[in-house]
C-alpha cells in the first residue's frame, strides 16, 4: 500500500551518503527557512528511465553547470547569475554529491524545491561544498579535481511494507523516534547492498539501531531519482562561467 505525500514534515537540508565512522542526526523539526513547501503539485511520477526521457540533454548540461558555478561563486565570494531553463522539468527535490579522486567529499540536498529548480541546485551545491559537517569545506584547488553529480528527485511516497521498494530505482527515507535518515537510490548499487543491508544502513544513517525499520512506529518513504553526473558528461557540461 502506498500513500502519496505532498511533503514530509520537518523538511530540512539532508545529507545523502554514509561516511565511514560518521553519521549525522537529522532531528525532525519545523520547515527550514531555506526550503519552501511544495504547494503546486510539482511532482514526477514513473521510473528514472521515464524521468531520463523527460529531461533534455541541454537541461542536464545547465543543471550541472549551475552546480559547479554555484560552488565557484561561493568559494570566490561573488554573486551567482543563474541561466534560464527553456525546459522546466517537474522535479520534487535535488541532491548534489561531490567526489574527489573517487571519494565522497560532500552530499547535501532538499526533498522540496527552494524556489525554482536551478535555485535549488545552486543552494544544494553550496551546502554540499561548505556545509556538510562530515567534511571540511571544499577548497578551490579541490574543486578543479571534483566530480559533481546532481540527483533529481521524484516525490516521496510513504510505504506501509518494507518490501515496497526496488533496489536501484528507489531511495529511502526513515523517520523514527525524532530522527530521520535518507539514502539515494544509487547508494545500494554502488555499495553492493541487498535489501536488508540497505534498510540497515538507512537506520544507521538516522543514528538508530540497524533493525529500527522493523519497529511498528518507524515510518518509511520511497522516492525515485535521476542522477546526472559530470563523469559521463559532454564537454559543454563541464564548462564554467568563472
Describe this structure in words.
There is one protein chain. The protein has one domain: 2-Layer Sandwich (Glycoprotein, Type 4 Pilin), CATH 3.30.700.20. It is α+β, with helices and mostly antiparallel strands and 242 residues long. It is globular, with a radius of gyration of 17 Å. The longest helix is centred in the first third of the chain and has 20 residues, at 57-76. The chain is built from seven helices and nine strands.
* CATH class assignment: Alpha Beta
Q: Work out the radius of gyration.
A: 17 Å
Separate helix tally: 7
CATH architectural category:
2-Layer Sandwich
Low-confidence stretches: 1-11, 19-47, 233-242
Full CATH superfamily name: Hypothetical protein ph0010, domain 1
List keywords for this structure.
Glycoprotein, Type 4 Pilin; nine-stranded antiparallel β-sheet; 242 residues; 9 strands; alpha+beta
